[in-house]
Fold each of these.
Amino acid sequence: MARRRAEGLPAGFYDRPVVQVAEELIGCTVSYGECSGAIVETEAYHDSEPACHAFVGLTPRTETLFGPPGRAYVYRSYGIHALLNAVCEPEGVGAAVLIRALEPIAGIEQMRARRAASGAQRLGDADLCSGPGKLTQALGIELTENGGDLRTGPIRIEPRSEGWDHPVVIGTRIGITKAVELEWRFSVAGNRNVSRPRP
DNA sequence: CATGGGATTGACT
DNA sequence: GTCAATCCCATGC
């Protein structure tokens, strides 16, 4: 059997309940330009709960969220950071998985250079992509990538490599003020790239 | 058209 | 532990 080529996840992967997709994205690979990393932390958001941007309904901002699954939703947070999400569930449902942290795989020196250019002082490997704002900085992802197809790029998400076997920890989402009780955060147990606070 | 609030990070007490 | 930086956009007048 031919070795699997690096290619996007199947088209139907994202067209499922967002919490399930969030868990299964752990271990998958995000790549952009020369840089790539394994997803070690995610959170799910759904228009049925108030922490989700799509809770307010269809607006210019949430257009991507309500669009077809498998696209990138990139938005600016706190006026400073770009945050990367994977749109899920059928078109017409506003749901997405926030990619919160990566374990760097390729392009590490470029990641370090970009993080340094953004003013970061701590630049160990575990400081490059250990947060949703950090990883977009490190990869150089901007708001212009909003709406891009995650199967074909420029931002691409690829399946887990064979033999991925790390326990996943479930917990509550971080940094939100509404629907704080939902346990929709997933992370790789003990991984140093997971953002703080660790579950 | 004015206002206010963030799915964050880094620096500082 | 606290706090400011800084942009987009939803909301309300």
Amino acid sequence: MTTSSETYDRELTEILHSRGQRVTPQRVVMNRVLRSAKRHVTAEDVLREVTGKLPNVSLPTVYATLELFEELGLVRRVATESGPALFDSRTDEHQHVVCRRCGRVQDLDTAVDDSRARAAARRAGFRPEHTDVVLVGLCADCAA
Amino acid sequence: MTTSSETYDRELTEILHSRGQRVTPQRVVMNRVLRSAKRHVTAEDVLREVTGKLPNVSLPTVYATLELFEELGLVRRVATESGPALFDSRTDEHQHVVCRRCGRVQDLDTAVDDSRARAAARRAGFRPEHTDVVLVGLCADCAA
DNA sequence: CTGGATGCAAACTCTTTGCATGCAT
DNA sequence: ATGCATGCAAAGAGTTTGCATCCAG
């Protein structure tokens, strides 16, 4: 089930206009790149992908746009124990496995019951919004 | 139930000797600082605390020692979505709440069932070792 | 003594900021 | 026309590396 670029573009345009923000080529291309990315990407990854389609895009713009997209709910920052920031265009509930040796990240799709943790967080005075679940270990290659 | 510095020192000495590594004043003091720290600390935090007890300790030594202690299982790096690396001397299973606005981190003590996630990770070829659970939201102060 | 551990300085990576220009509205 | 968004350069935060010296065993 692949979604077309036009659908991505239309959705982005709608969100941006509803907030009085501009639809620029950089934002359109970055949105397409992110939404069709299979893996978790760094800002550098995004720049590389985008540059193939639109020249002269700068890293500061990539960072600014990633931050914007995060606010818009289009991407989520992945919690990691080190290394450059990773961004994930899947915003639905899922988990990550990270290899502590090579840094590889993969999605998991299982149910994790965080209701007791959320309740404890509220008792501690927090207003929890989402839960990052990261399993740290070794991938098949690094285990060998 | 406070544990004395002597107990910390003895435990550290034992682990280091068993691996043929040296017991230096820097390591002893850092171990005491970390084990008695209530909150989650950055490398800078550790340096500040240590400098009060032992002058001329350098940040590279703090980083090297934190990495060593991580290998020894004395501290764990906390998964976060951004900011400087956080270290936690609690190595038993627990969760964290992080304020996405001010970065405050607090411990939670609840049971989170990650067995299905672990199984899924193994199916994906990983050998999961531990699970980081981080609830992201707003703390009481920042919610206002 | 001897080599692992340290301190210092410098390099490096990742990210943010300042500012002049450009383009979406 | 207006001012938000961009590109470029430079600065900034956090972490790592190189190397001479030191000290724990």
Amino acid sequence: MGKDDDRRAEILASAADLFAAKGVASTTVREIGDAAGILSGSLYHHFTSKDAMVEEIVREYLRDLRARYEVAVASHSDPLEQLRALIRASFESLRDQPAACEIYQNDYRYLRAVPGLSDLDKIVAGFQATWIDVIQAGIDTGVFRAELDPTIVYRFLRDAIWPTVRWYRTGRKYRIDDIAEKCIGLFTYGIAAPAATRA
Amino acid sequence: MGKDDDRRAEILASAADLFAAKGVASTTVREIGDAAGILSGSLYHHFTSKDAMVEEIVREYLRDLRARYEVAVASHSDPLEQLRALIRASFESLRDQPAACEIYQNDYRYLRAVPGLSDLDKIVAGFQATWIDVIQAGIDTGVFRAELDPTIVYRFLRDAIWPTVRWYRTGRKYRIDDIAEKCIGLFTYGIAAPAATRA
DNA sequence: GTCTATAACCGGATAGAC
DNA sequence: GTCTATCCGGTTATAGAC
């Protein structure tokens, strides 16, 4: 049984790489078969459909991300530290599961239309609530600036962080930890030099 | 002649809406025909192919954005004001041409593969250079914090701004000018309340 | 568990009548 | 300038042999 599961996992992993590189819709079952060393028809012995493969990849990814977020929030009481932990957790997720993350980023519209992922919007709303609660707590306790709009801040943070998966590559100029800290620094203190703008 | 051009422009505008809403690859020529009130075959009297339509939409959009950026940079000498003008110009572009902008955001991979858009990467590199030059000037003149990495700052800014086109809708809770100013405030000063973190 | 062969469908694009 | 009719290629998925 372990052997079969391994084979399944191998096929799924190489399929995820293809989905990430070319987009889900543009990846054919023939290509998935080629990458796994079998013919497309044989895929249907392991999976019921191409969309079922996509669903399995994305579900596992979301489950993992949810777990990381829960640890991040539970590990701190200060909202600023919680927010920083959420940012770090996001970058670590994107480092550890780049293929699934890229699928999630690039093909959200496709995923929403997959029958088995009809609860996707609900899951994503849960992530959003986690971030916004932390931001709101920061404002309420005076750690964050009072003028901030939590929803808008969340959206800018989210959209700044996740596309990193498209340009970050392991072993290149930046390590993911460095990028995470630069992101934290930028969003915590802003661009402007204090003396020049806060007079 | 004017009549023909109008008809062309109408078809192109409704096609752009479809491309933006469903994605370019998922939009069929039959749907484009339906939206224009003609059959798919008749489209080929006005355009040589579906990709030719896409190319025309995107080229016009990029030309307009380039012009806005040039005005933004030329109108100021202080790097902080130049950066703010670039941010405002981006949001105004996204407000005035939401369909083309969304295509550009969502279907970049598709666009890169369109033969007629083989210079796309080069054009985009020009945009990037404009932003990075301004950020570097801000650091050099001491207006921006010295620790900043211009390339990274550019990427976070770019990725925070453009996805706005996906959730912003005219006449809703926020006007685009408000969103632009909130973006400027967030990236200029950061999240942290000064007293709490700068001690 | 994989292969062969093929069904059933849908996409972009074309030719020629009107 | 639009319609009718159709071609051709590529897609997912299935049936049954091995």
